[in-house]
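<tokenise_the_fold>
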Amino acid sequence: MATSQISSAAFLDQIKNRHSYYALSKDLPISQDKIQQVAKDVLLYVPSAMNMQHVRIVVLFGADHEKLWDITGDTLRAKIGDERYEATTKGKIALFKAAAGTVSTFYPDRFKLATLNIGLTSYTDSVFRGSDQCRRPDREVPKLQ
């Protein structure tokens, strides 16, 4: 694999000037298989604490993608009420649903973290404490049915 170097200033400029593009559509410039492969590569090659690779990614297309945004919209409407949902959230949900798919990370795999007990017991408490910072225990994660 070829590597290229970038100055820290150039890297920081890229971070500072980045923004999200919300002109989403069902048209994909690359195949769904390529998107899934890139997601797998990101999981495999991005560093993680103690190389645990405990973060997971969900990649959804088509009906599953649309169902996710329907569930998300219904959940948010129930939490914030119809008036606020209509005023602030409905358009954003429709925008995301209009995309070809969803790629999203989700919470650390607790089973993977539990395997630390097998050889890294001195780190277990701090790793579990750190993993909890990634979660919002006051929030439920909707499940696809």
About this structure: DSSP finds six helices and two strands in the chain. Helices lie at 8-16, 32-45, 62-80, 82-97, 110-114, 121-132. The first helix runs from residue 8 to 16.
